[in-house]
Description:
Strand order of the largest sheet: 5-2-1-6-7-12-11-8-9-10
Strand content: 15-25%
Number of domains: 2
Number of strands: 12
Amino acid sequence: MFKHLLVPLDGSKLAEATLPMAVYLAKILKTPVTLLHIIELDAPEEIHHDRHLTNSSEAEAYLARVAKDTFPDKIKVDYHIHTSAVADVAQSIVDHSVDEIQPGLILLCAHGNSGMHDLFYGNIAQQVVAASTSPVLLIKPGEPPDQLKIHHILLPLDNESLHDKAIPTAAYLAKKCKAQLHLLCVIPTLGTLAGEQAASGSLLPSTTTAFLDMAEEIALEHFQAHLDEFQKSGIASSAEIARGDPAAIIAKTADNITANLIIFGTHGRAGLDAFWNRSVAASVARRTQTPLLLIPLVD
């Protein structure tokens, strides 16, 4: 499924937070890795308090050193430098992933101390997530390398069948990593509905409550079918239905089951601001240090 891992690096220690997970996944999935550096037009002298790589020879020496010092000999590692300076680094990463490298998975560092939307606003990682047709794995710095292993996977789903498109990826990783897969569906309550649903709930509380109860019954049937499939495939799995605010419950559940990975189906291409302002994934990212794997969904 993931035939290649793409790891963009800018020369900073923060960006290198993706490397332990890249090593782990390359071993488990037996996939090659490409380290990528984009020469940025009018680049600043420093990036995240580290020297910014602004010429191809310097970048090549850096990537060669990272490849040699970080990855075991059994892992095939290549590196690529986009030598023509570009103004839009994020789009260049996306273009490379589609046209040249076709990684299957892009690993990026989610750095910063504030919420995901704040730290990504106008940032390269945010733009890559919103524009990419490849899955993107976001990793926050600070986790010890020996903890960057996948033993428990949390897969939040809603009662829309479209989001089931993230299930094959979750099942694939659970099987490869010999991880426990936990399905979670969060049904809102009247008090946690948002937008048009909240307005409808205020006008028609009884009808809305009945609708939410029906959604829970559908989710129970839905989950049981998936659990049966996982059991046949030899994947350890569990499921639960919860009621309340989706982002808060997802983050809490991730902590409760000590999840090493949360997988979301996303609609990034619906628009940059729309994605980060309304996405449950973005809200969850503000509340947890757990790595997030974002799977683009196509209607």
